[in-house]
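Many introductory courses stop at the sequence. We go one step further.
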Amino acid sequence: MPQTNNQRTEIYELQTMLRLLSQTDPLLPIINPDGIFGPETERAVLAFQTGAGLAPTGIVDFGTWTAITNAYQNALRLTRRGLALFPFPGGDYKVERGEESDLVYIIQIMLSSIDVAYDIFDDIDISGIYDEKTEAAIRIFQRINRLAETGIVDSTTWDRLALDHNRFALNPIYTG
């Protein structure tokens, strides 16, 4: 019997939830949402039911749907990244030696976090003061990234710092 658009939408929603759940539960197979309740979806439902202590029928009744949506909400909290923060003022703003601000704290934290990959910066003091060591580390960072070696953090240097921070800081390849 052909599926209605509503059924396909509901199945797609189910598959989307099961896919996210597979990121937090290694016993669940990874499925690709397509809106069709086929053998892959049935295997994922059976695996979920077994793991959740439900009768493994492969049928998504009210109890299974409720359990999946509750587990999905919990998985969202575990896998969701926080909201992005945009602390750099942008435009022509420049951070240079002598500045004392929260922005300098963030620059120093980013330098320290990406040093897990670069391993060339002297120990950066996270003080909020743009001192000589911070400026030297920025110059090295700029040289490595083929940016103008000014020792000043402009929007271009900031963007590259943020990119490397996001790439290296929480990456288990670098952090263990």
